[in-house]
Amino acid sequence: MKLATFSQRSRTRIGILDEQAGEIIDLSIAAPKLPTDMTAFVEAGDRALKAAEKASRTRNKEARLKLSRVRIRAPFPEPRRNILCVGKNYYDHALEFDKSGFDATAGASAIPDLPIIFTKAPSTVIGPGDPVPGYLDPTKSVDYEVELAVVIGTGGRGISKRNAFKHVYGYTIVNDVTARHLQANHKQWFLGKSIDGFCPMGPWLVTADEVGNVKKIRVESKVNGEVRQSALVKDLIFDIPTLIATLSKGMTLQPGDIIATGTPAGVGIGFKPPKFLKKGDVVTLTIDRLGVLENTVV
């Protein structure tokens, strides 16, 4: 199932994508007892999914809205907590980052021994088609990073790798936009990653059952139509079960938590000289079975 957060006439609610019909099924009409925001919907678990599945077959014309008549938002426009992110989690990207001169955390080895975890503030999130405010980066070093994002369903602490996928609700696309000089100058990643509007997300939250074997899907980025990044999820250094087990060792993961799993090689700083984003650049991210996320830099 593809779940969307959308706005129409200044009202924001959630719905189900009907791709064949080119429509959004408005759950506030088709299933009015369900939560009206995505985090609460995820928190409601199987009960909400079963009700939504029933609602997807509605014949109520008022509940079916043409995609062209609504604004698709990020699935989680205002996450309850920071987005959990993983650095240097594809082999080729770890090597290009190590050689770029921008990695203030570089050590003896370019490949990390354990997952590198940082976060992005909730205020970074914007939706499909929303402008990326590159002008907010005073260092003019805006970069792109296509990432598969994992959404937690059932929360917990001390989750084992063996049981990790039982805690995955679904997936979405994230662009981990970064101000590279801020990232390097401050010797940590939070400030360079957490500028307002520096986390495009979407277009949908796709439930895990619809995605299937996540290792087989491809992530790709284009800038102005030029392919920059392309890799399979199976190429992650630390796979999804390892990330969930690592994060949940001490902290309790909660329903709706978002884990951005890392980006492959081909980011702007991997070029000589670096290809930073500039005003007017269009960044298009595609992940198999999840859709397309496109934003323009302003």
Question: What do these coordinates show?
Answer:
The chain is of the alpha+beta class and 298 residues long. It contains eight helices and 18 strands. It is 18% helix and 31% strand. The mean pLDDT is 95. It starts with a strand and ends with a strand. The chain has two domains: 2-72, no CATH class; 83-296, Alpha-Beta Complex (Fumarylacetoacetate hydrolase, domain 2), CATH 3.90.850. The strands form three sheets. Strands 1, 2, 3, 4, 5, 6, 7, 8, 10, 11, 13 and 16 form a twelve-stranded mixed β-sheet that branches. A four-stranded antiparallel β-sheet has the order 15-14-17-18, with no helix packed on it. A two-stranded antiparallel sheet has the order 9-12.
CATH class of the largest domain: Alpha Beta
Under the CATH scheme, which architecture of the largest domain would be assigned?
A: Alpha-Beta Complex
Question: Structural class of the helix and strand makeup?
Answer: alpha+beta
Main pleated sheet: 12 strands, mixed
DSSP summary: helix tally: 8
Please trace the helix and strand order, writing H or E for each element.
EEEHHHEEEHEEEEEEHHEHEEHEEE
Brief account:
With 298 residues, the protein is α+β, with helices and mostly antiparallel strands.
Per-chain topology:
Elements: E1 2-8, E2 11-18, E3 23-26, H1 27-30, H2 38-43, H3 45-55, E4 64-66, E5 71-72, E6 83-87, H4 91-100, E7 116-120, E8 125-126, E9 142-143, E10 146-152, E11 168-175, E12 178-179, H5 180-185, H6 190-193, E13 199-207, H7 208-211, E14 218-223, E15 226-232, H8 240-247, E16 258-260, E17 282-287, E18 291-296
Parallel strand pairs: 6-16, 8-13
Antiparallel strand pairs: 1-2, 1-5, 1-13, 2-3, 3-4, 6-7, 9-12, 10-11, 10-16, 11-13, 14-15, 14-17, 17-18
